[in-house]
Amino acid sequence: MNNTQDINGEGLGAVPCSASFLIQKLKEMHPQKTGWQFVEELRVGTGYGGDREQRFDAWAIQAWQKNGLDNLRRSFEVKISASDLRVELLNSDKRWFAHAYSHEFYFVSPAGLCDKRRLAKDEGLIEWDGEKMKIVKQAARRDAMPPRWDFVASLVRTISSQNTHAQPPKVG
To answer: Among 79, 165, 167, which Cα is nearest to 123's?
Structure first.
């Protein structure tokens, strides 16, 4: 199987793009001016060993109450190759924290890479079609568990680090 085949080894017409490109497009879908806080490469916890080193490709939280829901949380797993997607789909335990700490979970991929019928019933799919991001399968909204303090610490550290890198250099 190569990157031009789906998880069944069949040909696909996936639109080529990078993971960083897809994450940037996700960030644009979750603008801070509308209350979203978007985080890339978020670790589940602090320290080393066990599940603490597991990462979400991206995670977003709605900081404002919208439609009667406080703090909607979304987790994103970005896949740009068929082989990586296949491994992920065969190991649903790998996504346990992403499901637990979010109300909605989405796979994100180039159009044509992921067959939405292969996803769990509550998982969503967002695709880049070469022009725009498109929600192909809406994720089911679930209850989310309260985060552990080591997750909160990792979140704060990641946001602080991303904000530091995003600041323009001071002049003078």
So the answer is: 79
Task: Report the alpha-carbon distance of residue 147 to residue 30 in Å, rounded.
Answer: 21
pTM: 0.81
Nearest to residue 75, comparing CAs of 61, 91, 93, 92? 61
Write the pLDDT tens digit of every residue in 126-150: 999 999 999 999 999 999 988 888 8
- Where are the chain's structural domains? 21-165
Average pLDDT, the chain: 84
Pairing state between β 133-137 and 123-128: antiparallel
Residues 6+ positions from 86 with CB-CB distance below 8 Å: 1, 7
d(CA 3, CA 82): 5
Per DSSP, the three-state class of 57 is: strand
Quote the tokens at residue 95: 């996504």
* Identity of the residue numbered 92: S
Q: How far is C-alpha 82 from the chain's CA centre?
A: 17
Relative to beta strand 73-78, strand 55-62 is antiparallel
Express each pLDDT in 83-120 by its tens digit: 999 999 998 888 898 999 999 999 999 999 999 999 99
What per-residue confidence (pLDDT) applies to 91? 87
